[in-house]
């Protein structure tokens, strides 16, 4: 059960027998965009070996079939998970509700596969009647400030935005980079309409549980499902609002709030959760068995 004063654990094995399904965040828990962590991979593989089902739930703005090769390249073995559900999967459903749209792709070229098979055309900013935001054009150097003028022009025409990644920042290696969620937030501040897919919103959790059922878990009671994540506004908020227990990985994007990454201060973790009006069942510096 979640509360604002969760206890620390050294490994998933301490609580694994309470759960049949794990919904695990990817970036910040399994990898950091540069390398994956053997201990996290081992924990998920052991949970599955014990009869559990693991669904990787990511706010990646690409469909699940495009994310799998990235996971493989980072060394995340198929034994670690049953399947993947992405924000891109949910976004495709939202885009499909706008047949014939002229969409401006706001994001990197690597995300263009999001539109495969959809009834829409990509258009220049001046001609678009829809913004499909998957991130920044170059997240290695840009910030939301670089998009102020463009977003103001869209706002002047009341062009709606569909945001494929609610994350505002993620850690790539040791660098924090901005994501699509930061642009959606900026657009809303300007008075624009931004519909956001992925965590913390319900559709991605519903899709994840449906995939878990298809993978053999069947209809699992929510109290037998554990969400693992590091991001308060996305992973924790989404899981808590959906009614799931949470294992909070503290050495992720909020690590600086808790002292040494591998030895987080318990009181600092509790203060953070109370301030965010969130809870967790337990916390762990990094996912391990």
TrEMBL record:
InterPro entries to which the protein is assigned, alphabetical: HAD-like_sf, HAD-SF_hydro_IIA, HAD-SF_hydro_IIA_hyp3, HAD_sf
GO molecular-function term, one example from the UniProt record: phosphatase activity
UniProt keyword terms in alphabetical order: Hydrolase
Gene3D superfamilies: HAD superfamily/HAD-like (3.40.50.1000)
GO CC annotation terms, alphabetical: cytoplasm
Keyword Hydrolase carried by entry: yes
Protein name: HAD superfamily hydrolase (TIGR01459 family)
